[in-house]
Design brief:
Eight copies of one chain form a homooctamer. By secondary structure, chain A is of the alpha/beta class. Chain A is built from six helices and five strands; from the N terminus they run βαβαβαβαβαα. In chain A, α5 runs antiparallel to α6. The longest helix of chain A has 30 residues.
Chain lengths: ~170, ~170, ~170, ~170, ~170, ~170, ~170, ~170
């Protein structure tokens, strides 16, 4: 496969069952992502170095997923000028609110592009990454148009199904 | 000026005192943004049409700022495949929590890249947009590196100042 | 059956298990509702067009049910002058707080009549719709009086049952 | 003036500075509302009796505004089959969250049509009441269409103004 | 049994599995409580009348248990000068926060003595009622002293047990 | 003056501007309260001893007011079998939510009768204390009936005033 | 075993299944902790006395674990000048928010060193206690360096595992 | 002055007006603290290096103060085995809740000893640091005992003052 343009970094391998949906969504667009388990607190050097070298290593977008006091995406953003997307992971308490606030409320100058908590966010982080790459890749842009059309058609189909179910 | 690549859309002209910081930050990077007052609820046709034609009109990134039940960024995202950044505006109650949740918790398939509430978010929406455009613009990428260095140096300078203040 | 006066619109067919309680409550009042799966973000054109034509198509009340960044009811309200009722659906995180705030905190000029989160709200959206229609339909008004009396009697009956259970 | 079809009930006369915006909005539609200070806790008999006789006294919609443990709208709804709209008033703590939850989270069978917290909600309660009455009053319905158009035009005008301000 | 001095009123018979712990705790103190299912919204007349006549019927303390927009205890308090204790019931969403806020945040002049959410609160409502009655009943007062001593001894016993478990 | 039956304990003398409303309300009922500044954390011995001896010293009700991690009322309740009322004081952050939760969420066996946050709670703590004492004091009971009547009449008067203001 | 330097105090023996992770983590560092069930509200004398004598009994750090209105750690801190660490236990409602706020929001002068809610906090309370003791114990300090290295290596190992899983 | 044993690191020099209370409290104990402005996101290298070398540079305790997505204390903790104390700074929105959650909810293995939000926390971070250092410094331990006694006496004095004020 090609050198991946997208890196997915998660704070713990236990996050994979959610983060996998990010990976799989990228695959649907024909994109291969590098996946890394790296922690802002337990492997800080690796995480910082990864972010610092991400650009010269050919990455264009970094996706960080973490829960609780979710510092990972923000710390990566501190070490790169690439766009960083943050997925707040539902964690052991507070229903994801801690993860959301510690991902999104970044101070001036160091944004994290935050998506929804959990699985919905994992999928959307992928779409957002595709949208960013598609600015310079007309093929991808067409796939996004098709993806949007498919979502649209699925809603219509599920509506049709429901009409049958209700009206017999 | 050139055709702007970035559109800043806000739900009400009263948001300008915050959103202006997004505009001014873009200016620092030499970027001219189109600024529009358009409401998801009061001028829905204009908002939807704007988003639908944004790509063919040459835009690359859309920034939406709204407060309360902040639907604007999400609605724009429903009508485009461009990346959409959402700024949750502090509104008339609940300290911005309503704006944040209604901006970030987008369902699968339609991401909004959400930044911090209020002025910090307005600045960061601009930086994020620059980071996205910089993927295809080495000049911008260099400005980001410089911007990061300047922030860094300002922190060092403010530290030096504080040392003087404390230690006389 | 007659042309329905009430439309129930939900953002995803997975909402049906909750929204069905709205439909079934209307049935108890002899009212047939049109049920639609339409998304503010995935089928925005259909949703907007539905709301715009709702009045000329004979609808009097629109009920919108969505979760997370729940924009559906508010978006429908932006495209019609009919009363729009919003059911905040419990979603994948935050226990329905995101759905509630993004449904109820609408800006001036575009109200959404918000009811409780989840199943209680689904039932109450139906009652509220009936209350609105009953203003011009004395038969319905009488059914509401009877409904209120039935609720009242059920509470008394459950009290009687509990007395037996406790006092043997 | 005619017998008013809308009653605005507030828990304390100190709420008037917010609730007045409901009254004034109704006036713009040529509607006269009865305004009452009545408390679910301090004048419960008057409040209950008012709600019970509201229909025979010619009212069609009741609007209740209260803060804190905001029981007023719910208590009124327990005593009438008319639609009841609730305005959660910002109160002495918690930024209106207590008022919102105690207004909207009504149990099955007794809905309160809840609007936004505070002044935005006061205006929207009026619009919602007008939308309900307009179902049987084509003149009002036309005023709503005009109101929506005016809001639309004001947004366009404020956009035009901003363009001038920015681009000189 | 004697005329009970304590009334436990709950909004729905489905609350009994929690409220029963209030009843059983009172039984441990040799107190018989009247238990009623009465709703502030579905049987408002019965609820109001019950509260109004509670004093002349020999009650000294009223305990109200309700969830969601939990108006029951507050409404009872509006109709009596007896002390009213409120148990916020965990309800269908928001983890009991709605019940807590709509029980405790009563406006000036009409207090509800609020205890913890759910089962802990049900037990504590009973203890609080006993504490109030014990002011005029030395026998009860002695039972409270014994109850406190028993709690104390149970903690010591559970500590002893844990020491054994840990240290073998 | 007589030996007071009510003790008001506050965590800091800076709470007095709010707690004074409790004291003044008791005065309206002809009740003299002992007022103490005592801290669960800074003068724990005094606080515990005060609670332990409160009954033999003739107190019947203890009111505790504290903010932040508001342990005062709960700690007092651990040292007495008298009813303890807690006033959650608005503190330096979080709008009183911390004070409320740390006052009300007491574990089984040790209730704190919690009233509203801040000034409304200060007044209501007084009323609740009076309601408790009135169970054994018919004179106080009559004053409570009069107080309720006065509140009622004030609402009617403020309604009359508003009618004049609106209708000229 | 030696006289333990660390005391773990929990409000109820039912907390042990979480608090045990604190104990076990200390064991990994070769540290024996005294474990006590003591309640701020049910055995206040024992709790206060324990804290008061903790220093002369040879303890250096006290860890308090409690839920709901979690006063235990704060009360212990009021009776000692030793550092007190607080573990907010997830309790019967509100997902641990009540425990967190009533542990962390201590007033000036009486700190509680608060760690995360639940099991993560139980482990971290142990690490924090070790970090404190290690300031005067070079052997412990080396174990902490090793612990940090082990955590680091586990993350790298789990990353390696995931690479295999993904890339086959 | 001696080499300081305590480092106070803040994310921005604008935090100084709050953090100064930490510095001044340490001064009261005769302790000189190193004060640094360093940002987890803007000067990450300096921050990480500072934490890594803190121990060999003679520091014993690090205090980190930051607001919003407050990563500073956690990031420092990732780079040292010294105890790290976190002060959640009130920031531009959400009343400090974002700062609190992103400071306290650290994952297993990397604790941050979190104190209260804002000024109370700044003072308490100092006390906690003194408590830690006092374990190996009997002079400091005595100062803590005196500090506790002074706090105690101030409460008694403020009580005496209030008695005078009330009773004339």
């Amino acid at each position: 496969m090609d050198q991946p343009q997208i890196a997915i970094v998660m704070g713990s391998s236990s996050d994979w069952n959610v983060v996998e949906h990010c990976f799989l969504t990228l695959e649907k667009f024909g994109l291969n992502a590098a996946v890394k388990v790296m922690s802002a607190h337990r492997t800080p050097h690796e995480a910082c170095e990864f972010a610092e070298k991400a650009k010269e290593n050919g990455f264009k977008v970094i996706i960080g997923a973490a829960g609780g006091a979710a510092h990972l995406a923000g710390v990566l953003a501190g070490h790169t000028t690439l766009p960083v997307i943050g997925i707040p992971m539902p964690a052991w308490a507070l229903d994801g609110m801690d993860s959301l606030l510690s991902t999104v409320q970044m101070p001036r100058g160091v944004p994290v592009a935050t998506v929804a908590i959990g699985k919905a966010g994992a999928v959307n982080a992928a779409i957002l990454a595709v949208q960013i790459l598609a600015l310079a890749d007309e093929g991808l842009a067409e796939k996004l148009v098709q993806f949007k059309k498919d979502m649209h058609d699925e809603v219509l189909a599920s509506d049709a199904e429901l009409q049958k179910q209700i009206n017999g």
